Amino acid sequence: MHSFPQHLLDGHANFMSGRYSREKERIRDLAEAGQTPSTLIIACCDSRAAPEMIFDAGPGELFVLRNVANLVPTYQPDGGQHGTSAAIEFAIKGLGISNIVVMGHGRCGGIQAALDPNSKPLDSGDFIGKWMSMLGGLPAQLGQNDLMTPAERQTALERISIRNSIRNLRTFPYVAALETDGKLAVHGAWFDISNGELWVMDVHGDFIRPAL
Amino acid sequence: MHSFPQHLLDGHANFMSGRYSREKERIRDLAEAGQTPSTLIIACCDSRAAPEMIFDAGPGELFVLRNVANLVPTYQPDGGQHGTSAAIEFAIKGLGISNIVVMGHGRCGGIQAALDPNSKPLDSGDFIGKWMSMLGGLPAQLGQNDLMTPAERQTALERISIRNSIRNLRTFPYVAALETDGKLAVHGAWFDISNGELWVMDVHGDFIRPAL
Amino acid sequence: MHSFPQHLLDGHANFMSGRYSREKERIRDLAEAGQTPSTLIIACCDSRAAPEMIFDAGPGELFVLRNVANLVPTYQPDGGQHGTSAAIEFAIKGLGISNIVVMGHGRCGGIQAALDPNSKPLDSGDFIGKWMSMLGGLPAQLGQNDLMTPAERQTALERISIRNSIRNLRTFPYVAALETDGKLAVHGAWFDISNGELWVMDVHGDFIRPAL
Amino acid sequence: MHSFPQHLLDGHANFMSGRYSREKERIRDLAEAGQTPSTLIIACCDSRAAPEMIFDAGPGELFVLRNVANLVPTYQPDGGQHGTSAAIEFAIKGLGISNIVVMGHGRCGGIQAALDPNSKPLDSGDFIGKWMSMLGGLPAQLGQNDLMTPAERQTALERISIRNSIRNLRTFPYVAALETDGKLAVHGAWFDISNGELWVMDVHGDFIRPAL
C-alpha cells in the first residue's frame, strides 16, 4: 500500500477551501435529508467526459452511473450481479428519478475497440470484448463503405449505441410503464470532447445541437 | 421523448462559457492526443459523491467507474458481461493507469440496503439485492451489538466493503502482478458527504484523515 | 520507603510558582467555601487522558472519578464497597452536580484486554478481567468480521462501552429521576489521544465532533 | 440528552489551541508508542486536588486512579469487580510502574463523613457509607479528646487513612514482592488545598514538607 496520491490530496484541499466552504450549508443539508436527484445520467468512464463537468452540476443534482461506453443491457432478471441494472433499479425504484440521460461522447475507446475487427483482447479475461459484445451485430451492420471515414464510422456507432441502450432501457418493465404514464423521460445525448458541444436526441432520434 | 431537461442545457451553457472557455486549448489537446489519466477511481453513483468534485479534478485527470456502492467483484473470466471488470481491464491494460482508488462514502444507500435484514427488493428483478450480495456474509458478521448505533454499523460496513473490493481487485492477475512490481498502487478512501472530509486507508487498513 | 520522586517534587514547585501563585485567591476561597463543581467526569486512569488537561480545567471545576476504562456498574445496593457508585452518589447527593460526562478515549488498554479472547490474566487475582467483565457479552457481540481492523474494533467497543456505562448510570434511581426532572444531564464523550479531538454523543447516541 | 456543556467545549478549544498545539509531536508519539508512566497516583475525586495540577504533569506522566478519599482496599481475589484493585494490577503488571503515591488532601468530604458519628447516608444505597467503612475502626480510635479541634481530627484521619491504604497496598503480593526487590516504591503524600503545600511521608511515616 503506497501513500495516497498527492495530487488527489491537493485536489481535495482545493475542494474544502473552495466549493465545500462556499456551499457548506447545502451540502450538510443534503447529507442530512438524503439525496433527491431528478436525473440519472448513464455515462462513460472516460476522463474527458465527466457529467458534472459537462452539465456544471453541483452536489445532489445528478445520480451518475459510469461504465465503459455507457452501455445499458436488456432487462435480465436472471439472478446475476448486473451492476448497471442495479443502478437503474435504484435510481427509479429507490430515488424516483424522472429523467434518464444516456450520454455518449466522441472518440470513445470502447466504441473504437468494438469497431476494429482486428482488435485483440486486452487480456485473456477479455472483459472489454465481452462487455462491448452487448452491441451484438451493430458494428458489423455499419457496412464496409470505403468512403466513410473512420471518424464518421466511430461517431455513427457512438450514436447507434446510445439508441441501442435506450431501446434496452425500455425492456425494463418499470421504465416502459413510467414512460407511458409520463412520469419518466428517457433522453439521449452525445458530447463532443473536443469542441465541448452537446448534441441531444430529438423526437426523431436525431442528434441535434439544441437552440440556445 | 420529452424535450431535453432545461437545467442540463443551462448547466452546459455554463460549462461552455466557463471552464470550456478558459481551458479550451487543453481540452482540445486532450481530445486530439487521447486521454492519459494516471488514476482509476471506483466510486458510487450517489449524487453527493462525484469524484471530480471531491478531488477538484479537471478533464483528463480521472478515469471514473461508478456503480452502486463502489463494489468490485472477484476476477471471473467466465464470458459474462462484467461491466466493472471491463472498466478495470481497460484502465490498466488499455490506459496503463498507475493508481486505483476505491472510494466509498457516508450514508450510502446500497450499504444501507445490505445492512437491513428486513429490506424488501425494490423490484421483482431485485438487481440491487443481487448486486449487494457481492458482500456475502460481511453485513451479518457485524454482529448484533445493540449498543452500536445504526450510523456506526453503516460506517463500519462502508469501510469493510472498501477493503473487500480491494481484496477482490487483487484477484485480477494483472493487478496483483503490477502491484508486486511497484507499477500500480491500490488505495482506499472514504468520503464524508456531510463535513466533506476525506479519510484514506493507511498501511494497517485503517481509515485516517491525511495530515495536511 | 524510598525518597519521594524528584520529578513530582519539581512538578509541585512549578505548580507553586506558577498556577498557585497566579490563582492563590481563588484557590484559598475554594478551600474555605468548599467545592461546588457542576460536573462529574467519569474517566480512565490512562496517563494520556487527564480530564483537566483535555478540558483545560482549573481547581474546583471538575469532580473526577477515574477507573480503568471509565466503567460504571449498575446500581447494586448490596452492601458491597462500590467505589465508582460511591463517587456517583457523592457527586449527586452530596455536591448536587448537574452534569455527568462518561469520557472514554482511544487506544484504551482495558478495552483492548476485553477484546482479546486469548488475553491471559495479568495476575492470579485477575482484577482487570473481573472488572472488564462488567461489559458482559458486548465484546463478543462485535462479531468476527475479518475485514474490520483491530483499531476499528477497539474504537467501536470504546464507544459501545460508553453507552453501556450511561445505560448503567440510569439504573441509579436518583440519576433517572433527576434526568427526568431536567436537573441532571448525562453525556458521553470520546477523546482521541493522538489528534486531540473530542467527540461527543449526539441525540442519536452517535459520536460527533461538535461544531465550533 | 442535553447538549454538551459549553464550558467543557470551550475548555477543549483552549486545550487544542494551547497545550495540544505546542506539544503535538510528543502527544502523537505517546499515542503511537503507548503510555509508559513511571508513577501510579491514587488520589481523591475532589475538584480541588487534581494530581496533574498539583504536580504540573503533562500527558503520559501519571497513571491516575481517583476514588472518594483515595482509599485502597486489601487484596481480595474473590471474583468481585474491584475497580481500585484492577487499576493497581494494571499499573503494576501491565505498565510496570515503579512508584505508587497515595495522595490525600485537606478538607476531604469522604473523611469528613467517616468522622461524623451522626452523619446520615446520602441515599438509601449508602454507597459512601459502605465505601468509607473500609477504614473500619480507625475513625473511632481517634478518641474523644475534646481539646482536639475538628480540623485537627480531620487532618489526623486523612493521614491515618493514607497509611492504612499503604498498609492495604502491601497485602497485594506483587506490591510486597517488588518493594522488597527494590523495584517498586510506595509513597504517601498529603496536599493542602488551601496553601498549596505538599506534605510527603518520610521514613518514619511522618508527613513533612520536603526541603527544596
From TrEMBL, chains A, B, C, D:
Q: Which domain of life is it from?
A: Bacteria
Does the record bear Metal-binding in its keywords?
Answer: yes
An annotated GO BP: carbon utilization
Q: How many and how are cofactors bound here?
A: Binds 1 zinc ion per subunit.
**InterPro entries in the record:** Beta_CA_cladeB (IPR045066), Carbonic_anhydrase (IPR001765), Carbonic_anhydrase_CS (IPR015892), Carbonic_anhydrase_sf (IPR036874)
Q: Which residues cross the membrane?
A: none
Give GO terms: molecular function aspect only. Answer: carbonate dehydratase activity; zinc ion binding
State which Enzyme Commission number(s) the record gives: 4.2.1.1
Reactions catalysed? hydrogencarbonate + H(+) = CO2 + H2O
> Could you say which cofactors this protein requires?
Zn(2+)
Q: Per its UniProt record, what CDD domains does this chain match?
A: beta_CA_cladeB
In Pfam terms, one family for this protein is Pro_CA
Keyword Zinc belongs to the record: yes
Keywords, alphabetical: Lyase, Metal-binding, Zinc
Q: Which residues bind Zn(2+)?
A: C44, D46, H105, C108
What family does the Swiss-Prot or TrEMBL record give for this protein?
A: Belongs to the beta-class carbonic anhydrase family.
Q: What does this protein do?
A: Reversible hydration of carbon dioxide.
Q: What name appears for this protein in its UniProt entry?
A: Carbonic anhydrase
